[in-house]
Each structure stands twice: as C-alpha cells, then as structure tokens.
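Need tokens for this chain, all 367 residues.
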Amino acid sequence: MLQPACVYVSSAVSQTSALCCCIIILSLFFKKSNLNKSQNLYGMEEIFKSLSEEAREFQYGICIPEINVNDITPLKFYRSYVSANQPVLIRNACTHWPAFAKWNKDYFCTKLGEKKVIVAITPNGYADAVAFDSKTSREYFVMPEERSMTFAEFWLALDQPDKHPGVYYLQRQNSNLIEELPELLQDIDRHIPWATEAFGSTPDAVNFWAGDGRAVTSMHKDPYENIYCVISGHKDFILHPPTDRPWIPYKRYPPAAYLEVSHGNFVINPQNLEPLIEKDSEHKLEDVPWICVDPLAPDFKRYSSYRNASPLQVRVNAGDALFLPSLWYHHVRQSHGCIAVNYWYDMQYDIKYVYHKFLEALVSSVK
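Here are the structure tokens for all 367 residues:
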C-alpha cells in the first residue's frame, strides 16, 4: 500500500501539467526577451521554482511510496510508477531468491574463491567522482584504480582494511553478473517478471555490487529504468526528480584515475588513461560533464541554487528493491559488505525524454 503522506496523481495529469509548464516557460521567456539579462535570469529562476514546486505538489510528494511485491502486477507497476516516472520501494522483492539465504562471505569464498574479478579501489570511497588534486591545483573527474584479484582476496580486503588500505568496491557496470559471475545466476531471477512484462523487454544489463561501507556513488543520472535489489545490508539513496535539473550544477572536468604508487599512497593520475588511446589516434579524451555538488555536504556558497532542490531519501533494506526511474538523479551509500543486484531496462525515448531535453536546453540557455 502507498504511504498516506505521499502525494500521487496519474501520469496523464502529470504529463499535461508538464506540457503546460513548457508552454508557460516559453511564453514568459519570449515575453521577457526585451528585458536585460539579470531580469531575464530572475524571471527564468522563478519559473524553474514553480516547476519544481508543482512537480513536488502534484506528482512526487515528500517521500517515496511503498508497495509489497505481492501487490504488484505488470499493469499496476506500469500504470502507477513507470508511466508516471515515479520511484517506489518494493518490499520483499527478492526474499524468495536462494541468494537471500545463501549469499555471504563463506558461500562466495567456497564457490568463487579463486575466481578473478575486477575491483574498483579508491583512497576515500569516491569512484567516478570529482576530486581536487593539490599537486596541480585542479579538479578532475577521477575514476578508480581497477585491480584484478580473486574473490577471496577481495573479501579479505573488506575484512582487514588496516592491512589493505583503500576502499574496495566490486562495481563493474557491464552486466558483470552475467558476463563475469555466471556461477551466481542460479541464485537469482535472471529478470524481474513483472518488470519485464511492463517494459516489454528483458534487461540490458544485470549487475552485481558488493563492497566497503565507505564506498559512495556520486550523484548522477542514467538512461535506464533501474530495479535495484538489496540482498544483504542496506543502501541509502538520495534522489532528485528530473524537474530539479535547474538546481543541480554541472561542470566539465578533465578525466583522471587513482593510482596506488606505494602502500596506501594514492595519487590522481591523468596519464593513467593514456593506454586507452591509440598512439596514432587524433582523438583525445574529452572533458567529462559531471555534477559538482555533494548532497551530503553541499557547498551553498559555490552552488547556492542547490538550496532550491527537493531531495528525497530512502533506505533499501535486505530483501527489498527500489524502482529508480530513468533520468532521476541519485546518490548512493551502503552498509559495510552490502550485496546487491540491479537490473537495467532501456528507457523509452518518449515525451518525458523530450521534456527533459527541453529543460536541459533552457537551463543551458540562461547560464
């Protein structure tokens, strides 16, 4: 059942409201086009505020709704959540999986102990995130050091962080559960039946996640409908609806990667990416556009507009799943040793996508 405090309306109303907002934005924008830049910026900011407030009032509310998996049908899931681009916490979504009872360190080390896996390692838990390098006095988009090790070595590093400096996270997003860990497929559903029927397709990717409690996924959005299932531990999500785009700051950063140059000593190394480029190639790695605010400790002096954002928070406990709609911004933390599986279904490039691209263009035009 939905939580009473949550506000929800049909997708038809929400899409009509979005269309009206677009028309209003356009008319007011052109009406104010003969004003000076500061007046135009103020006018657009007020319109963006109205958009965020109406989305919160009519659609997303102030909390994430909940439903028990036994109450879900493909039609209900599609009508109430997918078409409305509405997140929902699904209770007991994966408690029936063998993985829910079997997956732990002992099971993995017995079944996969000598299996080689690629592990992301960072000094602070922030992989694929913005970091400042004091040596160059620059900010970079920094990827983790990726290291091959056995599954047993990975779990040993989690258990003995004093002997294995750095934050270890098994987080490859290349359908690694199917491509690299097929031994575990017998313990889970290869797809989510009610989601597959609702989306009309099977997942593009099925990913396995496990790691250190210090590991953080920095805020970003994906072009996928995401069913995120937690097997053990918990995940904490901070979510922003697509209508918060005007308040979420982006910058472009040169790419780099962490490199452990000695025991526990990591450096930010832009040169670490050179092997990815052919020597004779004319193509260079472009700067990466990335969100530059940390929702855990937002710097309002630098990014004052983030005060206008409407974050939602939800904890996904073991056995539960979160439906995270496409284009929603999300930031993720986890308990130590948390194990999860997520399913990425390709999004539909429909009117919601058109609205979002329109909003992106408007935000860019007033900066």
